[in-house]
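Postdoc handover notes: sequence design on the structure in folder B. Input tokens:
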């Protein structure tokens, strides 16, 4: 729990991206997503790491140490850090509207 709080404090103090790891990756993704302004995705390959940044503008990636090989994990993290949110020409408006929708739901339930 303290690890999640430190990750959260770093995130809300800027536009930093985060990487969090547990045995499966699922548990940390669930916990991170309970924190305001965090959009954490559990990823299992390079494609999912790219798409979560490009289409969901996720700011934290969750990895599973027991189900992700080291080389795949390195590729995922590099891809996640290097990928930007989709531009307007790439359909970013559509994705931004969807993100705003679920962020407003987060605010309502807080």
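Designed sequence:
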């Amino acid at each position: 729990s303290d690890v999640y709080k430190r990750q959260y404090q770093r995130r809300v103090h800027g536009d930093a991206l985060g990487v969090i790891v547990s045995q499966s990756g699922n548990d940390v993704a669930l916990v991170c997503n309970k924190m305001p302004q965090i959009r954490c995705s559990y990823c299992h390959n390079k494609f999912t790491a790219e798409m979560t940044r490009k289409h969901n503008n996720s700011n934290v990636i969750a990895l599973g140490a027991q189900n992700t090989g080291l080389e795949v994990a390195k590729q995922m993290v590099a891809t996640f850090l290097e990928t930007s949110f989709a531009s307007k020409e790439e359909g970013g408006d559509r994705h931004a509207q969807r993100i705003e929708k679920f962020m407003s739901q987060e605010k309502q339930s807080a």
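Context for whoever picks this up: The mean pLDDT is 83. Don't rerun without checking with the PI first.
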